Amino acid sequence: MRIAILASGNGSNFEAIAQAVKEKKIAAEIVLLFSDHRDAYVLKRGEKFAISCESFELKEFPNKKKYETALLELLNQYRVDLVVLAGYMRIIGKELLAAYPKRIINIHPALLPDFPGLHGIKDAYEAGVSETGVTIHYVDSGVDTGPIIAQKKVSIEKNDHLADLETKIHQLEHQLYPEILAKIVNEQ
Ligand code: GRF
């Protein structure tokens, strides 16, 4: 199976997945790493793994539709079977969703449907809940709304600072995303 990873920034989830592929824990090949930010740190991580990296930005196109068409062309060019979002901070457009039905996956740092959006960790922390977690889900046209594939909980202790919670969530993400991708790939 040929995987593309889409990421906008740091790329720690990309790295966890790339490492698992390298160790043959996921029976797939990462054929493409795409970032919508030309200076994203994830691209440096991609080079380290000798994965093909491509990047262009929305602002380089007259509109979002043209940007998405270019992205779809890129995915076609690399003959991508499965699209994995790892900190990709954009809503996926209609054309892309139609081209990859149940073939686009995302990770979110909260227990959806609770705390969707950009600040899942902070929002859960500030709400004072005693547990939160990580969700992996299929992508649809909403923000963090598609069918859920897997969830895992993390408890928030009384003396946890936000930074403690962030660390716990990211550790869980780096374990859960490769594990679930391995299963998805095996089920194809
Ligand atoms: C992760 O917390 C992920 O759940 C969210 O964005 C963050 C990306 O982190 N969608 P990184 O770029 O993988 O380090």
Automatic annotation (TrEMBL):
Catalyzed chemical reaction(s): N(1)-(5-phospho-beta-D-ribosyl)glycinamide + (6R)-10-formyltetrahydrofolate = N(2)-formyl-N(1)-(5-phospho-beta-D-ribosyl)glycinamide + (6S)-5,6,7,8-tetrahydrofolate + H(+)
Molecular function via GO: phosphoribosylglycinamide formyltransferase activity
GO cellular component terms, A-Z: cytosol
Domain of life, per lineage: Bacteria
GO biological process: 'de novo' IMP biosynthetic process
Chain sites annotated for binding N(1)-(5-phospho-beta-D-ribosyl)glycinamide: 11-13
Catalytic residue list: 108 (proton donor)
Record-annotated membrane-spanning stretches: none
Protein name per Swiss-Prot or TrEMBL: Phosphoribosylglycinamide formyltransferase
Organism: Enterococcus dongliensis
Lineage: Bacteria, Bacillati, Bacillota, Bacilli, Lactobacillales
Gene name as annotated: purN
